[in-house]
Amino acid sequence: MKFTINLNFLKKTSFVFFFLLNLSIIFSLKSEDLDDLNVETDFDPDIEEAINEESKNIEAFFDAYNLMEMGSVAKNNTNTIKSKYIVDLKSPKGELNGWLAVSNTKFIDPNIFPSEISESNDTVDFKKVEGGSFIVNKNFPNKDEKELKNKYSFYFHFKNGLVYFTGTKKSVNVLASLKPINAENNFYSYPNSKNSTLSCFNLKDESGMTWNLCADNIKTKYKWLCSLENYTGSYLDSFCLPENSGNKNKQNSTSSNKKGKRFRKLLIIPTETRKCNANWNYKQFGNDWECTCAEGKHQSPIDLPSKNKALPTRMKPLFIYENVHPLLSESTIDGLLVQNENLKIFYKSGALRIFHSYMGKIVTIDGGVYHSEEIVIHTPAEHTIEGKKFAMEVQIIHYGKSKGDISKQVVLSFLFYEKPGVFNKFFEKLDYYNLPNEIDDFKDLREKFFIPELFYNNEEGDINFTKDFSFYSYEGSLTFPPCTERTTYFIAATPIPISSTVIGMFKEALRKPDYISGGKIIKSYEQPKLNNRKIQDRNGRKITYYQSKLKGI
Fold it and tell me: CATH 2.30.29.30 occupies which residues in the chain?
């Protein structure tokens, strides 16, 4: 096997890309080792000349990233290594603080990150990212925060096993947090920087997401990267090791070279890293989902107990909802909402969903504010009560907007059972005879709706308030990937009757329909799909029950 490089590409670029296939590979290889791998150790002279001309910093690059012949990647163990760059984060007092830029390809996903925080001065719009998916700190410039030197910087903290960041040094508004399980070097520079120093590194969190963090100087990078590699038990880069360790490696390398043993730099082209739950579906009811979905301890849905076995509570949040008009007044960056167009119901990720920037809000007893931005319809229902299953579940997903709550969700859920001849006021507004499907994946909504109309049948007049109702509450997760925890559920305790016709139409929407191709009708014999996740273990979670003062509610 021989590696070849396109010289025209090298001549057009001012740098050379080097990739790692696996950090466990030792990149200092003896010539006889290369022979065993069937890799030619002599590069084409033209290629080496191009590399030397186009990358003046190539030697510094290898020195910094431990890919020269004297370098090696050290396997970390459970013992804390003493080094000028390593802070012992395993100790009770171990913590890190500093200014870093952050990017994440998931920032624009409204299911994971809210669109904007507007309740404080620490504001960031996760949907408005710049080159490389970096978010922008709206506090910049700030005369009271002299250390905030550019618009990409946020103040990062590591404490008690969590990495989190704020907009300013003194802010208490946590914009996002993660629990790191792996840290590793990468080959990126600070965003829009004229300095080519490779000052970035990757953090992988327990949900499987990868975060790219960048420092504005190499020493800050080394301090964060080495400390987190040591904390997570990841492979340690050579610059993280004590100086005498590096000298020893250098002496050994020099000694080996005096004996005539040759070392070569090896370029390895990797395949793309597999992502958690890529192309997920409901075929196995979530049994095949990965990462947090499989490893989380507070997952949803669950089987709810009888009201007599739940912990009684008199505390309830405020449920405040508004009439949602079909003609949209604003657009969103993801294109789901377009100004002056009709609101839509989508077939997306195996379920029927409605997205809106604001359908109302829930204010929890601790003052947390959560905006309603998504409605998800499941047939059959996902939650059960004392093992009893229901025909449908409607989940209203609210995303945190207040200080310290932006990475949290609140879900208000309604369970429905079939009863012939009963029509629901809310569903009549959705035109259930004309729902989207796998081929025709969205339909316009043409009537305004009000979420509390879910409680009422079609014969009742206009509703403009949310009545008191009994509900269960517990701490869980989203019921679809990435199965984000820190999600509070409020589930209406009294199941609501609904016509078999309505249930049937929503089930039918999940089936691939008949369609026309080449002037012929193609029949689809596919059965309606089920889009419910299996019941999850409670794992000792507390389940509370609020009893409404209204009879039968």
Answer: 96-232
